[in-house]
Amino acid sequence: MSYSISQVEWQQAAPLLKSIREKVFVCERRIPKKIEFDHDDTIAYHMLVCDDKNQEPIATGRISPQGEISRIAVVMSYRSERIDIFILQGLFRIADKLTLKEVFISSPLEKVTYFTKHGFYPVGSVYMEAGMAKQRMACATCKAVKHIKKAKYYLSH
Question: Which keywords, in A-to-Z order, does the entry hold (predicted)?
Fold first, then answer.
């Protein structure tokens, strides 16, 4: 299979990005639309992955200008393809262009060990977001790039 990955702007690609996130977060994870789609969408840098065979949008993720990685979503039928790696590579390239020293992610508690093994470390206390316990984690951008090849699929909201 082959895929196209692009950095896109919310204003032009919102329908495609929304369709992926609605499938993954609103339908699968039962996150209310009013929480899923926020004002950060308009200022974030977004990645979009499409299947080259059928031109369908299959994955997305975003990074804020401050380095907050979020809204990583891969449509269920593509999760075994490790599409998340393409998204993360794109997001880390953006972080590098922005000359960010660190990136952050809000990790579900069950993924904290996973992120720790990949160079992230916990920051602050556990908190609740959209009914889920989360841990903010950080990673030096240069360290994140080294570990990205080993990444497994996860959902980040």
Answer: Transferase
